[in-house]
Write a structure and sequence with these properties.
The chain is of the alpha/beta class. The chain is built from 14 helices and 13 strands.
């Protein structure tokens, strides 16, 4: 196999031939004027799948996340986020720069807030305090682990949020993976959320795009804010067309990614590599090469020499993400080449 096997992320997938054809033939119109029938079809489809009143197509999950924060807050307000969340770590300070809000990060290894810590994080009224306005969740949790969180585990968080009159927003970039792993639907898994988003290009193979869902009033304001930050689009049907296929055809093939990820985990463990088993796992394989006597950067460098790309997470851990362009054959090749790297150290 001569081609590079890219396991850095499920964002590296190429659009399918059917998606490319759909882009070419998409019926388009001016989306800012609400004249693009393909965008409207996608938004109605997404809203229906998630059981929400309305949906909005945005360029990226980051844009959807930041729009949600901007809808729910005013400058000087505060939001509660996970310390390891994408929203807090990988959006170039958008919470503060765009929304003017202050994040209050809380640590979690499980993707669920500690009840006592969350209660203490919600600021009481006071002339010297930022007002807590939003509680943010992430499912799957942690971009380097991909942990699926069952709906029942959010019960305490929801009770606290409702008790304080606070909305709940979920960054659901890989929510379809979470739903698959917890044997539920995305509508059931996110039903308690006031707003939720999902990426069309993570695991679903669309070239770009994200869907933001919520009430009609929320989406009306989200559309205004999308325009304010330069996200308004004209003939966006060429983006929406592959998005429709992502939601109608690519979701059903996600079990293959989960099965391949588990095959990868078992194969790595058989070779003495420690893998993350700390939760309900999805399409992300997190491996620790320290017990095998390696650092992650050196291990990744050696893998690249064999045509395999993996993401370095920490000094000793790497991430491998299974996706539409990685099948059982590629998994077998990766495991063989991991063995060759390990033997090279012996």
């Amino acid at each position: 196999m001569d081609r590079i096997i890219d396991l850095r992320s499920d964002t590296v997938t190429k659009p399918t031939a059917e998606m490319r054809e759909a882009m070419k033939n998409a019926v388009v119109g001016d989306d800012i004027l609400r004249d693009d029938p393909t965008v409207i079809e996608l938004e109605e489809l997404a809203a229906g799948i998630f059981g929400k009143e309305a949906a909005l197509l945005t360029i990226s999950g980051t844009m959807s996340n930041e729009i949600a924060v901007m809808v729910y807050t005013k400058p000087g307000d505060e939001i509660v986020v996970f310390a390891d969340s994408h929203l807090y770590n990988l959006e170039t300070g958008g919470i503060s720069a765009l929304a003017g809000a202050q994040p209050r990060p809380l640590r979690s290894d499980t993707g669920v807030y500690d009840t006592g810590e969350l209660g203490r994080a919600i600021m009481p009224p006071g002339v010297q305090r930022a007002r807590t306005r939003l509680i943010c969740l992430e499912n799957t949790f942690h971009l380097d682990r991909g942990l699926a969180i069952e709906k029942s585990r959010y019960a305490d968080t929801v009770d606290i949020a409702r008790g304080h009159g606070l909305p709940v927003f979920m960054d659901g970039a890989r929510i379809f993976n979470a739903a698959l792993a917890t044997n539920t639907s995305v509508a059931e898994l996110t039903g308690f959320c006031d707003a939720v988003d999902v990426c069309l290009c993570k695991g679903l193979a669309a070239p770009l795009g994200s869907m933001l869902m919520g009430s009609r009033d929320f989406i009306y304001e989200a559309r205004r804010i999308r325009q304010r930050i330069g996200g308004g689009m004209r003939q966006a049907g060429v983006i929406a067309a592959p998005g429709i296929l992502a939601l109608t055809k690519m979701v059903e093939r996600l079990p293959e990614d989960h099965e391949n990820a588990e095959t990868m985990r078992r194969g790595l463990e058989a070779k003495g590599i420690v893998v993350d088993r700390g939760g309900v796992l999805t399409n992300i394989v997190n491996l620790d090469v320290a017990p095998a006597g390696w650092t992650a950067p050196l291990f990744a460098e050696r893998l690249l020499g064999y045509g395999i790309r993996a993401k370095v997470c920490t000094e000793h851990t790497l991430r491998m993400v299974l996706h539409n362009d990685i099948g059982a054959r590629e998994v077998s090749v990766v495991l063989d080449r991991v063995g060759e790297v390990l033997r090279g150290r012996a």
